TrEMBL record:
<dbReference type="InterPro" id="IPR000089">
    <property type="entry name" value="Biotin_lipoyl"/>
</dbReference>
<feature type="region of interest" description="Disordered">
    <location>
        <begin position="26"/>
        <end position="55"/>
    </location>
</feature>
<keyword id="KW-0092">Biotin</keyword>
<dbReference type="InterPro" id="IPR001882">
    <property type="entry name" value="Biotin_BS"/>
</dbReference>
<feature type="compositionally biased region" description="Basic and acidic residues">
    <location>
        <begin position="36"/>
        <end position="45"/>
    </location>
</feature>
<dbReference type="InterPro" id="IPR011053">
    <property type="entry name" value="Single_hybrid_motif"/>
</dbReference>
<dbReference type="InterPro" id="IPR050709">
    <property type="entry name" value="Biotin_Carboxyl_Carrier/Decarb"/>
</dbReference>
<protein>
    <submittedName>
        <fullName>Biotin-requiring enzyme</fullName>
    </submittedName>
</protein>
<dbReference type="Pfam" id="PF00364">
    <property type="entry name" value="Biotin_lipoyl"/>
</dbReference>
<feature type="domain" description="Lipoyl-binding">
    <location>
        <begin position="46"/>
        <end position="124"/>
    </location>
</feature>
Length: 124
């Protein structure tokens, strides 16, 4: 369904058509998708945890822009330590370590756009 909106900015009026998209008939694509970033589904997510289940995957809680990465691979972190700063709706949101561990993998770089549940890092 396409809706037509009129938006007034100062003295100018703009007409904007907006199409409603649901998971049934479409998907929202970001630049990360366009760059063929590897997506990890639930089955692959299990393989990251290995046989011991000791790895912890840190996912993006919202769609946004990675503005800073606070850790390096191999760095020890404690629960609550900042891992990534994610900008969403003009607010910077710290993404923190859910538990104590060591950074095994960092899946994003500064400037990346991420979607909800995209993997940011893996701890062990």
């Amino acid at each position: 369904m396409i809706k037509l909106y009129k938006i007034r900015i100062g003295e100018k009026v703009y007409e904007v058509e907006v199409e409603e998209i649901t998971e049934k008939n479409g998907a929202i694509e970001t630049s990360a998708d366009s760059n063929n970033k590897q997506k990890i589904d639930k089955n692959e997510n299990r393989s990251l945890q290995g046989g011991t289940g000791r790895s912890q995957v840190v996912k993006a809680p919202m769609q946004g822009l990675v503005v800073d990465i606070k850790v390096k691979i191999g760095e020890k972190v404690k629960a609550g330590d900042e891992i990534v700063i994610l900008e969403a709706m003009k607010m910077e949101n710290p993404i923190v370590a859910p538990c104590d561990g060591v950074i095994d993998v960092i899946k994003v770089t500064k400037g990346d756009k991420v979607n909800t549940d995209d993997i940011l890092a893996v701890l062990s």
